[in-house]
Each structure stands twice: as C-alpha cells, then as structure tokens.
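Question (not urgent): is this output format expected?
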Amino acid sequence: MNENQAGKNLNIEGGVQAVAGENLGTVNQYISIQKSEIEITNQPLITGSPYLGLRKFEVDDKDRFFGRDNWIIELTDYLKPKNVLLLLGASGSGKSSLVQAGLIPKLKDDFGANRLVNLTFVPDVNPFESFYGCLLANRYKQSQAKLAQAVKEDTLIKVVEGLKNNSDLWFIFIDQFEELFTRTPKTERDIFIKSLVKLIEKNNSLVKIVMTMRADFLDKLSPYPSLGKIHDQYSKMLTDMDENELRLAIAEPAARNGVIFEKGLINQIIADFYEQAGSLPLLQYTLDLLWQKDHIQERVLNIKTYQEIGGVTGALEKQADKIYGKFNEQQRKAAEEIFLELISLEGEKAVSRRADKSSFEQEEMQKEVLYQLIDNRLLVSKGEDGTATVEVAHEALLRSWKVLQDLIREKEEIIVLRSRLYADAKQWDDLQKQDAVKASSELWGGSKLAKIVEFQKNNSLPNLDTVAIEFIKASVSQAERQKNEKIRTARRIAAGSLVAVVVSTGLGFMAWKQTQQAELNLANARRFSSLSLFDKGKELDAFVEAIKVGKTLQKQHKYDKEVTNALQELLNRKSERNRLEGHDSVVTSVNFSPDGKTLVSGSGDKTIKLWNVETGQEIRTLKGHDSVVSSVNFSPDGKTLVSSGDNTIKLWNVKTGQEIRTLKGHDSVVSSVNFSPDGKTLVSGSWD
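Got this back:
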C-alpha cells in the first residue's frame, strides 16, 4: 500500500496518537485506525494467520509489515545520496525485517522493480560462496556467477564489473554481518573484508551496500580499521519500536483479515513485550499462536486465550515444552544432540548457528525428531547453494526455553571446544591445499586433543562434519608419531649415555689392571637381569639395570668383555612397546618427582597414576576429576601433587593419595597448572 497520509494524526486503542508520516508520506494506510470495530468485522474474513511466528519477514511479506514507516522513509532518503549503510541493533529488534519487508519494497517502488537487483545473502563459512549462491538465485547463470567464487581481494569488484548492467541498481544486502566473525575462518574473513572495502571505495552510485549487524558484536570490528571507518561514516542504530508503532504492528495485520482484539488485550501484550526485553520475533510468535488457538470465526482475539498460551513472556517456552514433552527418552536425547550442534557461545551469550541438514538425517530416529522440530517451528530449514541447512528458529528460543538454557550450562565445555574445532579444522583443510607442512601446525595435541577424543569416545559429539572428523584423525596420527619419536629420542639418549659408560669402562681397564670379583659378579648378574627384562618388553627396567651395570663398572674402573658385549647387544635390540601401561585413555601429562624416583601421569580416563621409576610398577591411582586430567605436577618438596582437568584444580597428598582440597574459580577447562619454586603459590591456565 502506498497511499500518502502525510502528517495525519491517527487514533488507536487507548486514545494514543500516532503520526502516520511526513516528508514523503506514509508507506501504508492503516485501516485499523481509520475504521471502526464494526466496519473491520464486517469485512470478508481471512482465516489464515497474518503473523509470521519466528520466521523473518521477507520482501513478499511487505503487506504484513507494519509500524516502521518512519524508519523506511529515513533509510530510503539516506540511501539516495549514499551507497553504504551499516544498520546496527539488538537481537530481535527487527533489522533484517526492516530491510527485507520495508526498505527493499520501497526502493523497488522508487527505482522500479525491474531495475533493482536484490542480492541478499548471509555470510557463511565461505562468504564468497554465499554471494555466489545469491547470484545463482537471481538471474545469473552458473558460468557467470562463478566469478564470485574466487577468494581474492578484487573478487567483488570483478563481479560488479563483469555482471552488472549499466541501467541496473544493485542492492547488495549482507544480512547478519556478525556471522563473518562466528562462522567464517579468519583467512576467508580477512580477504572478504578487504574485497568488500575495495568495492565500497569504488563509490558506484548504482551499487547500494547494506549490512545488518547485532550491536553487541561491535567489538569484533576492532581488528579491522577499515570497518571501523565504515561504522563511523555509514552506521545507524535501529531503535526499539515505541508504543504507537507496536500498536500498529499488532492490530493492523488482524484488522486486514477482518479480526479485532478484545478491549485491553493490546495494552497487556505491549506491557508483556517490554517485560520480555522487546523481542519482535517472540511477539510475532505469540500473536501467531494466539490466532491459531482462538476462535477466529468470532472475529475477536481474546484475553483468556492469550493468558492460556502463556502470553509474550511464556508462549514460546510453553509451546516448546509441549512438543518436547511428547518425546520419549530416546527422542529427547536426539533433540538435545540436534540443538547442541546448532548453538554457539559468544562470550557468555548463546547464539544460533547453521548446520547441514544432512548431518542429522543419517540415523532414523534423529531424522524423525528433526522433522518434528521443523514442523513445529522450533527449527527452520533452508536451501542454500544446493545444500539444505537447519538452524534454531530464533535466538529468542535460546533465551526463553529452560530446557535449552539447562543444556547450554551442562554442555558449555563441549560447545566451546566444538566451535574451536570447526574453526581450526577449516583453517587446516584450507592450508592443506597450499602447504601441507604449514597445515600440520594447525593440528591439535595435548589436553585439547585428549578432550575431543574423549567426547568422541563418549559419543558426546555425534554430528561432527566430515572436515572436523578428518582433522581429529590427522591430529591423533600426528600425536602418535610425535610420541613414538620421543620414545626413539629417549632411547638414543640412553644409548649414547651407555656407550659413554662402556668407553669409560674400557679406559678404566687400561688405567687400572686390578679387578674386584664381587663387583664384577654383581654387574654380571644385572647384565642377565637387564636382558631378561628387555625380552619381556620392559624396556625401562632393562635400561635402568643396564645403566646400573655401567655405573658399577665405571665407579670401580672395571672392564669385562662379556658384560660389555651384553650391554652392546641390548643397545642393538629394538622395540616400539610403551613400558608403563594402565591408563584406559590417552596420557595427557607426565612429570617426575624432585628426587626422580616417582613418575606421575594424567589421562583422558579421568585418573592420575603414580609409578615407581625403578620397578615400573604402579604405586596407586587417584580419582576425583570429572573429565580429562590435563596437567599434573609435583611440589618442590615432592610431598604434594597438583592436578587440573575440568574447571577445577586439585591438591593431593603424595604419600597417602588422599585429596587435600579442590580449588575453583575458572569458568572453563583448566589446561595447565604448576607450583612456584618455593611451593607456596600455584599458577593455572584455562580456556576461559
């Protein structure tokens, strides 16, 4: 509707005034204000819901989008002389809807629908691919659109120069610009930002670039001075709807369908809306649910029905609980696994992320639950670049539904680690195509790798994508190679020491001709013991005995051909067997006691083990951590042991194996801990 009502004051329920427009006039003529209740209810009844629920407004929804007339006019006026706009606003403030259902239709009216080319996309793992998919969705052929696939700084300029007709007005709308910082790896992000800035600097009057971004992501612009300048010159902050605008957004869609609200209901809805921190999608969801649950044939939306569905503050959670309550235990577990894959954390704030729909369709039960969540509008499925994706219907669900809030708290460590995994795996995958050696430096090791392996083993991350799985496999393989190399290095060091002992023994023989039979007999006995231990696979014990033989002979300046030959034979033998065995998972940390007699090890099996270095025997096992033990160390006096793994640090009595105390304070996994030289202070490092 484009009838002008310039400067006209209009009355809505409660006698509140609303200015319909000025300057260029209003975008819509509001029948909910101009007609009486009788006139509205005498119109033909349209039974389909005029509210969108959690779905975003799109261009075709312009006739259901109300209350933002002044903003539509302001942004239209702004973009006539300027070519760039960064529209900021809180989550749920309606940024995307304003551009899609308000600004774009208005620009089409002003410039001509055939002239305006709407290129709307959300940046994904590769924003150039996202733009490519957007071009395909418009009038461009694959052979033309492939220009956008090049990950280069001049790509966007080349696309404009190669595809745009001189008469066309290109409207490039990058929705959810913050996804560049949550989904896109740094390499692609940096190049895309440079490419975007170059296109902006071209200042082509027939290329309008609009970006929407959540205001709480402004700090992400700090590493990019060029984006900071764009923010300073071209940004606007979308303010919340005032009471008059909300009344129009609530009443007008129903009025156009021939339905009114019971007296006092709109006031109650507005009060509840402000109490719920002003989430417009949540408001739309509540109104849509109210429409479905009420008796539309009576043409009045009622307060009683509104209260039954839980109002704005409880409608979404109540509906989600109802759906979730119908699931059996296995279905609930499947639902939690799906939601877990669709949630990321930005600081302490939970945000939605997209995933390939196919990753949830491999197992029949999970597939069935997925479709039920989509059918009930808790999830949204879209087709992008020939690939179907799925995401949480709106972040309002993350804030409003206790089931998800509890899941996020319980699985916070998994969510954080998985986000890092996807980012690092993508970086590794990209580097492999260019430099395999450099790519290997991106692989994980230590406690981080042990943790993700544990999660895989426990099936805590059942829906990892292919790149992430290959990244984990490559990391494990590299860790195994490094471990074996350390064993070989240790063996070479031991061999070198032993050779030095043998040489020294020979020199002693030349200098000293006398022998002491008792010492030689002891050395000989240890020689047989060493060989026997080696044959049993006990390398560490074998080398310990061999070194004792050498030290005995060196100390007494003895030489015995049989003993020396036996030691040389020992050095020539080879084995890849790991001597100390007992842990059920990856060993993540080891350390010697100050006197060198005791070895401590921490593992992915959540335990700590103390070992006798001389015998290789396990002394005792310490249990208490709830997850992978990432770091273990002795105090300088050797009496106390410190360990870390989950979000805690534990102190242990080495002699008794009893836990002394647990230290808390970190918000995430404590990856490293150690004593100061005087043993009075601890230092710890964490992922928080």
